[in-house]
């Protein structure tokens, strides 16, 4: 499951590893970005799929959640 809060924490860990300091300002900024990314992916994202079943090959479109 996609999670804006988990994405925010991952981004903060990555930027701290690069030497940036965690501040309230960049936490709010990154939280806003993470929420926007997750919202966009879950509302606009689709996945084309294909599977092989005993009945043959099947294809379809799935929604990202």
Strand coverage percent? 15-25%
Q: Indicate the percent of residues in helices.
A: 40-55%
Number of β-strand runs: 2
C-alpha-based Rg, rounded:
18 Å
Topology as H/E string? HHEE
What structural class do the secondary elements suggest?
Answer: alpha+beta
* Overall residue-averaged pLDDT value: 88
Q: Which ranges are low-confidence, i.e. pLDDT below 50, for 5 or more consecutive residues? A: none
What spatial order of strands do you see in the largest sheet?
1-2
Distance between the termini: 6 Å
Largest sheet: 2 strands, antiparallel
Overview of this protein structure:
The protein is an alpha+beta fold and 65 residues long. It is 54% helix and 25% strand. It has 2 helices and 2 strands. A two-stranded antiparallel sheet has the order 1-2. Helix 1 (4-17) crosses helix 2 (24-44). The protein is elongated and about 55 Å long.
